[in-house]
Structures are given as C-alpha cells and as structure tokens.
C-alpha cells in the first residue's frame, strides 16, 4: 500500500518488512518458491545448520496438540558445506536478507560454523540456536545455563562482525536473565521464543505420540507465553527483540510489535499455508491503514499500560 | 509444484458436496480446476480449515477422483479433524494445497496389475484403477479387504469398466472370510495369472503392507506401495513425515526420506520395514 513505511532495522540489517520466516519451518527458503517471492520478505531464516549433516530423529516426529503441535525432528539438516554448495547460490538471487541459523554440540562447533559461513557472500547474519545440549557439559542446553550462554555468545561474537541474533529458549526459570547475559556477551538482537518442551501420550495404548517422548510445542497454544516473554525481555534489554510463537495472522504479528518486538518470525503457520507470510504482511498493512499509521515502527513497544486491559 | 499459479498460496474453495456413502466413509467434492488438471494417481492434497486455529494443521488426503474441474477425496471419520470435515456442508470454505507428492509409476500396458487395498487404502488407489482400466491390455485385478462388510465402498463403475474384483472381509459377510493378504497369496500362486508380467500396487494399514511385501518377495514381482505418515505440511518443510529406508552403506544403516515429497509412493523393497513404527 502506497505511503506506508513497513521497513524496520535490526542488528544493523535493514528489513523491508518486520515479517521473517522462522528457522526450521521453510527449509532453506527455497521450498517456499512455488508459493511466494522471497524478495518480498523481511528476511529468510534458514533451517538450523550444523558442521556435519544430521540425519534427525526416528519417526514419529510430529503430533498435533490443542491449537498447536509437538515436534521432535532432531535438527535434521544437510550440513554447512552442502548449504554453501547447493542452497546459498540460489538464495543469492533474491533481494532478501538471509540469516543462517546455526547449532552445535560444543562451543567449537559454533565457532567452526561462523568461521566457514561468515565470509560467504549472501549470508547476512547469524541466528544462534542455543537450545542444543552442550556435550562437554554433560548435555545441559547452552541456553539453559546463564554462564554457559554468555560464554558461548562471547566466543561466537569474537569470530564474526556480521549481525548476531541469539534465539532464546523459553525452557528456563528466568528468561530475562538469559536475555541480559546474551546482551552482555555481545549479541546484536534476540529472537524468542523457541519451542516449549512438551509431551503427548495416547491414553488407550499408553504410548507417547513421539518416538523421543518429549518434543517442542509451537503454534497458537504458546502465543500468550511468547508475548509475556517478549514484554519482560524488551523492558530489560536495549538490543532489539524478534518475537515469535503462534503467529498466524497480521493481527497476531501486530500484537508482538505492540508488546515490544521490532520484528516477528512466522513458523508453524507455514505448515498450513506456505504463503502465510504474504497474508500476514498484508494484514499488518491493513491494520496500519485502519489506524491511520504511516510507519510500522510506531507500533513497536506501543502497548498502552495506563489505560488498563480492554474487555 | 504448480499450485494455483499466480495466486501464491493454497486455494480456498467451497465444498460442493460431502456425502456419507457407507457408515463413516465420506466422499467430498470441491472445485479446483488447476489441481484437477494436474493430479496424477497416487498424489495427495492437504486440506485444512481456513477459519479455525484448532485443528491447526492440514491433513493429507489422496486424490480419489477427478471430474472436469472437480476434485474428490474419500475419507473415513476417525478423529477430530475428519470429524469436523464430516460436518462440513456445501459452501463451507476449505483450504486445499496440491497436488502433492509423486504418484504411482504406471506400468507397461501389457502388465497385469494387481491392486491391493486395505480399508481406507482404496482412497489412494481409485484414481489409479481408473487409469489402469483405460490403458492396460491385460486385466486389472483389485483385491479389496475390510474388517466389516459395510465398510466396502461401492465400485460398480470400475467393475463395469472391466475390473476383476476380489473381496475379503474379516466378518465374513462378503467375499472371502479373512484378510486381503490371503487373497494376494491366491492371486500370486503359480498358474493363477494368464500373464507372467504382474505388478503390485498397494495401499492400506502397515501390517497389510508388510505382509504384502513379504508375499511378493522372491517372486520377481515389482511392488509399489503408498505409505502413510503423520505429516504437518505436506510439501517438504516440516520434515516430520519421514519413513526409514535402507541406506546406501548397507542394510543396517537406516536413512530417512520424506513421505510427502519423496513419496508417498515408493518401491516396496527400498523401505526398511523393520524400522517402520506401528
């Protein structure tokens, strides 16, 4: 729509729109090509990459739950070299920001990923998945221990000048503490929330629905938790936050922006509609028009606390 | 994967009809011209409820039939999603993504196809049967098994087109009292077929597929199976629907392939059946 400014900037990146894809929900971006032009998106966050390819977990890997789903894909991915050879050259054809999500089982693996991917043309920034277990620390997730998290962020920060986004796990006692530690370690931005650990079991057979028993919950079911965390974190850190968790519509995205997020990621919604990002972008513009707002940035953090809750 | 070219996302289209043809089995039709023109036997669609957040995810359904611009699916009412689907009336909106996946590879016209359907597996085989009956010079046989006789979908149109139909019911009220794999053993017995060139096409519950694959093993009969798996997206991005396959590095090494974009039809011998969850 003419006249409306939908751009946002974040971690030194200029985004055409606050709408980005969430890692792990649209492959390496290219899978969406039959449905939409990637150049229209704010950014594409590709599926989490590890140094070596990962085969993923045994099936069943997904189950639908009430207004959501559990997944236990096991971080299946093609590995950084195959990404550089097979996917990145095609992604360069699009006028969009490409953010590479990285994951490792040791600090050194994250280092290797950043060293190798950082200099690549077409990689505009990193999003660090810190929900992986640190094998050297007995399998505790990087993102669940404040010291380990800060150390990892510092370690990765030293090795790249490209924008560094830390994707926080909600499976912690104090998300604000984690956010502060990531900021202290040198993160340029935070994205939250990753999936919440959940379980689904069949009462008749008494068997869990996932082969790994526990999986990550996503979808509209987690939206209020995500909004609460975005609100808490944005009040306590100065770096921008990318909000996500159950966004299906433009209105959902607007709620995250109002609560304090500078941009949003769309994940599970891709599974029911591969072109959902376009619908969400349109929905945001319709909202802005309806409220006579010229610039989407005016929404960021505009939550009205004094007026009290609306009915 | 061409889908509503020019429109971007999946089609939202009204239901035209939704009829319970036998208890708990429904035939649902909607208009989807691009999809109707493209769909091949064995391909599938993802159907979802555009106005609801719960159920959130689309469900996969085989393309049962195509008539002009109309596409039909056949489904059995089993859970929450199909329960809601069963309550849809003409005019209600449906989100449709497809056609998806790779369909059956059609055999040489001289081959005599044996088609094996267990229960709702007939949904994935009906369009295939229509094609086979048109193009094969050798007779096409359908071995169709259900637990209860009242679950049998009427197939008179196919019989009129020359289909050889053999039925097995576990309640014994129609056809053979037993399972469809017993019918298969008979059909595969030496001298049972007038032609040597036989190929198997199967869709049904996991135990039936396993038994069928076992039955053709060593007979030199090619078998294509359409498998089912829980999937969230249907177009390759969720990576949830994987099935175990024999790896390149020997049979002990399992590798995963996606049912949605790599299948749902596979050559039976490629699947690592021991690793398939029940």
Strand content of chain B: 25-35%
Number of strands of chain B: 16
Radius of gyration of chain B: 18 Å
Overall shape of chain A? globular
Task: Show the largest interface.
Answer: A-B, 39 and 35 residues
Global geometry of chain B: globular
* Share in helix of chain B: 10-25%
Mean pLDDT value of chain A:
95
Strand and helix order of chain B: EEHEEEEHEEHEHEEHEHEEEHE
Proportion in β-strands of chain A: 15-25%
Description:
- The complex is a heterodimer of chains A (311) and B (278).
- Chain A has 311 residues and is an alpha/beta fold.
- Helix content of chain A is 28%, strand content 22%.
- Chain A is built from 8 helices and 18 strands.
- In chain A, the strands form 5 sheets. Chain A has an 8-stranded parallel β-sheet with strand order 3-18-17-12-11-8-7-4, covered by helices on one side. Chain A has a 4-stranded antiparallel β-sheet with strand order 5-6-16-13, with no helix packed on it.
- In chain A, helix 4 links the parallel strand 11 and strand 12.
- Chain A starts with 7 loop residues before the first strand and ends in a 21-residue tail after the last helix.
- The relative contact order of chain A is 0.17.
- In chain B, 44% of the residues are buried.
- With 278 residues, chain B is of the alpha/beta class.
- In chain B, the strands form 3 sheets. In chain B, strands 4-3-7-1-2-6-5 form a 7-stranded antiparallel β-sheet. In chain B, strands 11-10-9-8-12-13-16 form a 7-stranded mixed β-sheet, with helices on both faces.
- The N terminus of chain B is likely disordered.
- In chain B, 20% of the residues lie in helices and 35% in strands.
- In chain B, helix 5 runs parallel beside helix 6.
- Classes of the chains: A alpha/beta (311), B alpha/beta (278).
- At the A-B interface, strand 5, strand 6, helix 7 and helix 8 of A face strand 14 of B.
């Amino acid at each position: 729509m003419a006249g409306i400014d939908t751009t946002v900037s974040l971690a030194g990146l200029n985004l055409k729109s606050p709408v980005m894809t969430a890692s792990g929900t649209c492959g390496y971006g290219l899978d969406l090509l039959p449905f939409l032009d990637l150049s229209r998106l704010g950014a594409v966050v590709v599926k989490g990459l590890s140094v070596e390819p990962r085969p993923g977990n045994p099936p069943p890997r997904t189950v639908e739950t009430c207004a959501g789903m559990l997944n236990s894909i096991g971080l299946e991915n093609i590995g950084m070299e195959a990404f550089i050879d097979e996917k990145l050259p095609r992604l360069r054809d699009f006028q969009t920001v490409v953010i590479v999500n990285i994951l490792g089982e040791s600090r050194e693996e994250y280092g290797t990923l950043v060293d190798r991917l950082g200099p690549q043309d077409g990689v505009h920034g990193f999003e660090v998945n810190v929900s992986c277990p640190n094998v050297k620390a007995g399998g505790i997730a990087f993102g669940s221990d404040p010291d380990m998290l800060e150390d990892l962020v510092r370690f990765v920060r030293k090795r790249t000048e490209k924008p560094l986004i830390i994707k926080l796990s909600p499976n912690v006692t104090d998300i604000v503490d984690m956010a502060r530690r990531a900021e202290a370690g040198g993160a340029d931005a935070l994205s939250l929330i990753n999936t919440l650990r959940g379980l689904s079991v069949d009462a008749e057979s008494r068997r869990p629905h996932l082969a790994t028993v526990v999986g990550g919950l996503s979808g509209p079911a987690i939206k209020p938790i995500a909004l609460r965390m975005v609100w808490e974190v944005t009040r306590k850190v100065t770096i921008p936050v990318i909000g996500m968790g159950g966004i299906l519509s433009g209105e959902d995205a607007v709620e995250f922006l109002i609560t304090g997020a500078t941009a949003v990621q769309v994940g599970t919604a891709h599974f029911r509609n591969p072109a959902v990002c376009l619908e969400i972008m349109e929905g945001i513009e319709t909202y802005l028009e309806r409220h006579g707002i010229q610039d989407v940035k005016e929404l960021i953090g505009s939550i009205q606390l004094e007026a009290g809750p609306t009915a | 994967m061409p889908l509503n070219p020019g429109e971007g996302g999946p089609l939202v289209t009204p239901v035209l009809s939704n009829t319970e043809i036998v208890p708990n089995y429904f035939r649902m039709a909607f208009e989807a011209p691009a999809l109707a023109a493209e769909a091949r036997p064995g391909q599938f669609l993802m159907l979802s409820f555009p106005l609801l957040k719960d159920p959130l995810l689309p469900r996969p359904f085989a393309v049962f039939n195509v008539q002009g611009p109309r596409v039909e699916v056949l489904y059995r009412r089993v859970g929450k999603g199909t329960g809601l689907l069963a309550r849809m009336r003409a005019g209600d909106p449906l989100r449709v993504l497809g056609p998806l996946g790779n369909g059956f590879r059609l055999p040489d016209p001289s081959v005599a196809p044996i088609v094996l359907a267990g229960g709702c597996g007939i949904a994935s085989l009906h369009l295939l049967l229509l094609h086979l009956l048109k193009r094969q010079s050798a007779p096409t046989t359908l071995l169709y098994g259900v637990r209860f006789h009242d679950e049998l979908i009427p197939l008179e149109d196919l019989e009129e087109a020359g289909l050889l139909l053999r039925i097995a019911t576990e309640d014994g009220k129609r056809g053979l009292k037993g399972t469809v794999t017993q019918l298969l053993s008979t059909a595969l017995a030496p001298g049972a077929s007038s032609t040597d060139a036989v190929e198997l096409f199967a869709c049904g519950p996991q135990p039936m597929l396993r038994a069928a694959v076992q039955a053709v093993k060593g007979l030199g009969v090619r078998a294509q199976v359409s498998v089912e798996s829980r999937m969230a997206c249907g177009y390759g991005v969720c990576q949830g629907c994987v099935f175990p396959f024999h790896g390149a590095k020997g049979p002990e090494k399992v590798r995963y392939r996606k049912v949605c974009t790599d299948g749902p039809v596979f050559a039976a011998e490629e699947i690592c059946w021991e690793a398939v969850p029940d």
